[in-house]
Amino acid sequence: MFTQTRIKLTVLLAVILIVLYGLLSMVAGTVVNSLTIGQVDRSLRVGAMGLLRHDSTLNESLREPPTDRNPNDHYSPHLAHSFFLVGIRSMTGNVLASNDKTLMQFVPFPVNPMGDASYMTWRDSSAGYRLRLITVPVSDSTGSVVGFLQMGIDISPQLQVLQKFWQVFLTVGIIGFLIALLAGYYVSGRALRPIYKSWVQQQRFVADASHELRTPLAIIQSNLDLALSHGEQTDVEVLEWVSNAKAEARRITRMTDDLLTLARTDGNETMLELVDVDLLQLAKSTHELFMPIAEDKGVDLVLDDQTAGRLIVKGDYSRLRQLLVILVDNALKYTPASGRVTIELIAQRHRALLLVADTGIGMTREEMTHAFDRFYRADQARKRESGGTGLGLSIAKWIVETHGGKISIQSVVGEGSAFTVIL
Ligand code: ADP
Is residue 222 part of a domain? Predict the structure, then answer.
């Protein structure tokens, strides 16, 4: 799928490049043409107008064809001299006089020469050169057109320059196009890499989620099957199977809540509602919330306030509460009876430090590096059947990072863990 997209992007880039290069060559062609042929046309026009203005013999030539005379004697010599071909034609196009009468016979006469001036390019196939020709009407003193002046310049050198230009342009175009194709393939590959990575992550996420949901669902099903198929069992046994199923159903609910949160964060749907949040007040309420569970477990839950009575940060109240709940819940989950869990708050100059430390089972170095991965649960945590989903710390990390903060773990196996949040 990604290779196809990559090829499609490269082809799209190629098409864009071809169109752009085509437009560029049209502009360049027009400019170069007007610099070369345009320049020739201008000098042809200036020459023709000069002859028409200054050469009083033109009209005479039209009345009395100077068939055998050299037009260089006949027309203003300095003007006629600078042109390859000069000649005059009658109204019907017959050659009346020219500096090269033979050549003039072959030179085409415009179909409609009555305009201000007509230009054309003609190739002498026998001699191999090309002439740029101008044809201008010649008028008598009353203003009526009585014949035509036709002049030509050999533009073979200019055309050679033009040809060279187009050759270079084409070669550069082809080489540039090939390089651009390779670069396009490489760049599109690089651009697609993060999308590919996140696609793989999503695939894994869906696979992991299905896998994780299948286990509690299987447990629910088997417990309900037992309850239904053993009608002879006592109520106590049946109740135990049903309560097993209920516990797993709770686990599924928790997991789907977490999955929904993560899916929303992936889709950037979760917007933070930033307000002034008093972290101390939040820590106190979390402490109160978990007190009964801690007492139940025989764990000492302590709130260590190192602030001056208030610690205000800009943040989303419910997300920061969720963060504290995840960290304290984990600490209590992974700390055995007679252990201790401490929530500590420290106010620093421009930041707030939140520490949740425990004297629980701790983590190995390997476990610490994966603790924030989705669905990661250390073996010990799995063995303890703590009811975790492996999603809590991924959510915690997302909350801290969207608040522009940092979260880190220090832990020693068998001694305990400490989570530090800097906001
Ligand atoms: P879970 O729902 O399994 O607790 P989390 O994402 O919150 O998922 O945590 C991931 C894993 O990190 C846990 O399964 C556990 O192995 C480890 N862990 C998290 N907090 C602690 C802690 N305070 N002490 C020891 N291990 C912990």
Answer: no
